[in-house]
Structure formats: structure tokens, C-alpha cells
Amino acid sequence: MGKIRSVTKMTDNRFLNMYYLNAENRLGGDVNYYVASRASEAGQMKLAKKDENPDGVAIYSLYGEKRDKIVLIHQYRYAIDDFIYEFPAGLVEKNEDYHSAAIRELREETGLKLEPLQVPAYMEKPLYTTIGMTDECCSMVYGYASGEISTEGEEDSEEIEVVLVDRKEARRILKEEKVAMMCAYMLMHFITSPDPFYFLKCDEDRDI
């Protein structure tokens, strides 16, 4: 098993920092590794704390009287210098419950009100996003959205178009557009299931 010898913080940014890991591989050889983290200091990284508290949330919400539309955002991302389809998402603030974070983020990014569903805890378990690059982990919160779309809460660094997507449009987006991986997998489920939230009603004691 590999081993980390030391961790050095390389940047000092508010939302994301780069850390250098001086490590060794399973054979004792030297490894120089770089990790992006939401942690403000090395002692708060997942490798130090060994916890899986969510750094952020993504919101999978259905909209409309028939609950036949999914709420997405079409957002400009500097990393690709282009727009991409994603779920509304954001960071969990200090001492904030992640359900509260989901309600706040959906309101800020879309103007919509979120009614979170009560689901088995493991279905909202924090999961790692891109583990080869970052120790960030996020929870998915599921629910129903209502209200009128607004981007008044959009920050200066954000360019967001809120879209309410039916199954036909979801297919087109998957075929023709740039889509974040997490969002793409859920869209595949959305377009093939009569009840997009059916899997949330199943648990380990009952066949899916």
C-alpha cells in the first residue's frame, strides 16, 4: 500500500486549493502527487480527517404538475471555455446541513423552491467526484421543485441558463450537447423510467 510522507499547501484560495503530496508507492518508490481540495488547510483534507462529510450537493429535482420535467442548468465553465449541462449544485457552508444547502443552492441558482424527499441514507451518501484529481465528495439530494425561474441570485462569476427538460429534450441533450457525467447518467435513467424516482422507493430489503 502506498504511503503519504508529507502534504504541502500550494495555494490560498477561498473555494479550492492545490496540495502537493510527497508520497511513496507500494514498492517504496518516490511519488509526486497533486490534489485539488475544498479544504482550507492540509489538516482538513479527507486524507487527514478520514471522514466523508459532503463538500457539496447536487440537486436532482422534478418540476411541473405531472412532475415530468427535470431541472437543469446550462452553465459556462472556464475549464472548458464553453457551456455544459449540469444539475444545480453548490458547496455546503460551514455548520450547514446538506439538505439546507440544497434548498439554498436551488433557490440561488434557479429561483425555484425545493421540497427534498426523504430517502434511505445510503442513497444520499457522499460520493467522490473525480478522485484522481480531488478529494471532493458530494451528496445528491432528490426532490420536487416549484415556483418561477429566476437568476437574480446568480453571482458575477456565474453564467447560468435554467432549463426545464422533458424526456424528448433530455435525449437531444445527451446526443448533441456537453453534459456533466453525473447529470448524464441520471438523464439516461430519467428518459427510460416511467417513474424517475422509482429507485428511491427501493431499499436493501426489497428487490428493485
UniProtKB/TrEMBL annotation:
**Top-rank taxon, per record:** Bacteria
Supply one GO molecular-function term.
hydrolase activity
Q: Hydrolase: is it a keyword of this entry?
A: yes
Give the Gene3D superfamilies listed for this entry: Nucleoside Triphosphate Pyrophosphohydrolase
The alphabetical list of record keywords is: Hydrolase
Q: Which residues form a coiled coil?
A: none
Q: Which InterPro entries match?
A: NUDIX_hydrolase-like_dom_sf, NUDIX_hydrolase_CS, NUDIX_hydrolase_dom
Concerning SUPFAM superfamilies, the annotation shows:
Nudix
Q: Where is the Nudix hydrolase domain?
A: 52-187
Q: What is this protein called?
A: NUDIX hydrolase
